């Protein structure tokens, strides 16, 4: 069976580092095995789902280079959920409930107050047809819960966490459908995973207890003839920030914010691919190289720590590797491959290239030089000889003529030619400045 994974965001906001990581790992799990990676838009919550977020999710995945092999939308699949629901109803696996949110909250508080787990007491299972008829007559529609089978423990071998076991009696029967007929996430997700041939569900560990419940749903759906095979499950440890939960600053961790501040998609992927694994985080720009190391067995159980500083370091290291072709459309007018190559090592973000390019296009503002440096620079202007390697021949000629070496030789030249005392390799920069302009800069610094 073709390995099939899915990334299933709810379009209620922008993607952020947490769900980008989940998307990436699902993409890798599929790609590594020549399988399929699907995008499933979980938009059954009509009130919170927004079309603009759907578009942004697609855009972000394209920017990241995680293009799916197919896209599905839950809002277009409602008849499948209806059919599954009818099958579960016929099999006695869903039941009608009427408790209000306040009543449920009260029940929870009472149980918690007695030191008991806040499990739904299944009071509604005791209702008989007469009770339902009375509710209907009063205009009260039911919501529906899935009835867990308490017979056997629920067990699976988790791809990250190893063997897992849950006592179903310790779980609440989950609400699957609201009184207005709309769906909660659990059942549609199981229906879709079966219908789409999803072989591997890889998601955050906040879904572990959902998995326990969903395994019974999968089994009930398979038993009702509604699909093939229960998928494998793997739950990755959550991503946390330096100060704890990520949720507090999700805005700044959004894909859009990352793009705006000049983070390269390769940097984000290199970091997120390995964060929380036993492999070192390295500035690996090639996706195939990242894929080669991907293995769920390297995933740790401890929360993975996301650190902006680390992202910035990876980003700079990635920028230093990027080819001209990859950045050409983001560079200032006139800056060609040689310019990019000269300036690239000085950048943390591609966007800074324009600033550095001004050293080539000028005007530059050299400092005021001492008289002996002015004489030295005048000599430099005279000795400038435009061969294959003008910087090295100039330095050699000046060394010979003046006896200067090291900083005394190089610093006034750099300052006169660029107006700065550090920056790109002068051997690469000088040819870009050009002979006439270089001589003019040296003469004007000598004259000042
Ligand atoms: N839409 C669900 C979520 O955002 C998907 C969870 C899953 O991967 O099954 O949490």
From TrEMBL:
Residues that, per the record, bind ATP: 248
Keywords: Aminoacyl-tRNA synthetase, ATP-binding, Cytoplasm, Ligase, Nucleotide-binding, Protein biosynthesis
The EC number(s) this enzyme carries: 6.1.1.17
Annotated GO MF terms: glutamate-tRNA ligase activity
Keyword hit for ATP-binding: yes
The Aminoacyl-tRNA synthetase class I anticodon-binding domain, residue ranges: 377-445
Localization (cell): Cytoplasm
Catalytic activity: tRNA(Glu) + L-glutamate + ATP = L-glutamyl-tRNA(Glu) + AMP + diphosphate
'HIGH' region (motif): residue ranges: 9-19
Role of this protein: Catalyzes the attachment of glutamate to tRNA(Glu) in a two-step reaction: glutamate is first activated by ATP to form Glu-AMP and then transferred to the acceptor end of tRNA(Glu).
Assembly information from the UniProt record: Monomer.
Family: Belongs to the class-I aminoacyl-tRNA synthetase family. Glutamate--tRNA ligase type 1 subfamily.
Protein name: Glutamate--tRNA ligase
Gene (UniProt): gltX
């Amino acid at each position: 069976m073709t390995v099939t994974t899915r990334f299933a965001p709810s379009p209620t906001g922008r993607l952020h580092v947490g769900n980008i990581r989940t998307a990436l790992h699902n993409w890798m799990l599929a790609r590594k095995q020549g399988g399929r990676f699907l995008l499933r838009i979980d938009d059954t919550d009509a009130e919170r789902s927004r079309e603009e977020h759907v578009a942004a999710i697609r855009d972000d995945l394209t920017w990241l280079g995680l293009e799916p092999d197919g896209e599905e939308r839950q809002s277009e699949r409602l008849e499948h959920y209806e059919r599954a629901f009818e099958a579960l109803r016929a099999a006695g696996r869903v039941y009608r409930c009427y408790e209000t949110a306040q009543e449920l909250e009260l029940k929870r508080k009472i149980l918690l107050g007695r030191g008991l787990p806040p499990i739904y007491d299944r009071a509604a299972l005791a209702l008989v047809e007469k009770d339902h008829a009375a509710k209907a007559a009063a205009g009260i529609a039911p919501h529906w819960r899935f009835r867990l089978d308490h017979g056997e423990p629920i067990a699976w071998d988790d791809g990250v966490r190893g063997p897992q076991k849950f006592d179903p009696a310790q779980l609440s029967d989950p609400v699957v459908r609201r009184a207005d007929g709309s769906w909660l996430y659990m059942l549609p997700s199981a229906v879709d995973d079966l219908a789409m041939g999803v072989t591997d569900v890889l998601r955050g560990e906040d879904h572990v207890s959902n998995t326990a419940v969903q395994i019974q749903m999968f089994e009930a759906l398979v038993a009702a003839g509604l699909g093939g095979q229960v998928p494998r499950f793997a739950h990755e440890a959550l991503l946390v920030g330096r100060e704890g939960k990520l949720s507090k600053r999700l805005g700044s961790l959004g894909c859009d914010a990352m793009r705006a501040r000049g983070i390269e998609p390769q940097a984000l992927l290199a970091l997120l691919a390995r964060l929380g694994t036993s492999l070192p985080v390295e500035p690996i720009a090639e996706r195939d190289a990242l894929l080669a190391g991907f293995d769920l067995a390297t995933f740790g159980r401890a929360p993975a720590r996301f650190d902006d500083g680390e992202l910035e370091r990876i980003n700079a290291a990635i920028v230093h590797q990027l080819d001209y072709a990859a950045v050409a459309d983001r560079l200032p007018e006139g800056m060609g491959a040689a310019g990019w190559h000269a300036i690239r090592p000085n950048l943390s973000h591609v966007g800074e290239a324009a600033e550095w390019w001004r050293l080539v296009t000028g005007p530059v503002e050299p400092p005021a030089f001492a008289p002996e440096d002015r004489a030295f620079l005048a000599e430099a202007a005279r000795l400038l000889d435009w061969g294959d390697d003008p910087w090295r021949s100039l330095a050699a000629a000046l060394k010979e003529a003046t006896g200067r070496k090291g900083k005394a030789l190089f610093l006034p030249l750099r300052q006169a030619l660029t107006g700065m005392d550090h920056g790109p390799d002068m051997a690469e920069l000088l040819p870009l400045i050009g002979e006439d302009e270089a001589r003019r800069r040296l003469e004007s610094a000598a004259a000042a």
